[in-house]
Amino acid sequence: MLVRLVRVARIFRLVESSSSIRAILSTLYISLPGLSNITSILFLILFVYSTMGVHLFAKVALTSNIDAHANFQSFGRGFLFLLRAATGESWDHCMYDLASSTPGCVSDPPYDPNMCGFNDTEGCAPLNGCGNPVAYVFFCSFTLIVAYMMLNLTVAVVLEGFVNSQEEDDDSILVPELLEEFQYKWAEIDPTATGFIKVDKMLAFINAVAPPLGWIGIPLPMTQFFRYACKCVFLQAFATFLFHCGLMYGFYRCAPDTFI
């Protein structure tokens, strides 16, 4: 048992040593308040639609898709039914069955507690209510709100959490000031904005940019730099250095473990 606990503890050591995992956990932690708000809104939407579903479709006859587990005969089953529909599972088939009328059905039958579904005992009265065309509006609006709007809101909250976690990280490479300085120094050497500079001016440019995108005040490891720079086809073909190659090299220096 003790050995297993030690093995589990290795996971926490991995989290401390991996910057990528720490970034993910930091994003999740920052996003929790926003995700809890979205969850509350989603619960409210499910509550409202479940109540509407019971009022509109509780007495609709059962079919192959509207069965004992997926129906609006009670609030609880309706809530679980909509929760399943929110994942996109057969919601269109259920919508069609709730909007269609089976042969011999009764339009809006009076409520009878002895009907099958409300009272599943031997000899219960068959549930034979007709469908309601409102089901098309009901399910289309529900799917639009939950599957699209709520999903986009969730993604937006997670992205905002990621940006905030990057801003709180002192080692973040996404610093606008560094990028502006890189562009300004490049413009001094390339005033016409061609996107290229001559190789003989390349070292002067790198030495004029502050770390971590440049090497100002730091001894320049020539071997490492040329190993990366020579991968650029523009450098080999035209004896020029591409703007984006220099920028990517700076990113590589900032985060070599996550650079792809």
TrEMBL record:
Keyword Repeat annotated: yes
Protein name: Unnamed protein product
A Gene Ontology BP annotation from the UniProt entry: calcium ion import across plasma membrane
Single GO MF annotation: high voltage-gated calcium channel activity
TM region positions: 21-49, 136-159, 232-252
Cellular compartment(s): Membrane
Annotated coiled-coil segments of the chain: none
Taxonomic source organism: Phytophthora lilii
Topology versus the membrane: Multi-pass membrane protein
One CC-aspect GO term: voltage-gated calcium channel complex
InterPro entries: GPHH_dom, Ion_trans_dom, VDCC_alpha-1_subunit
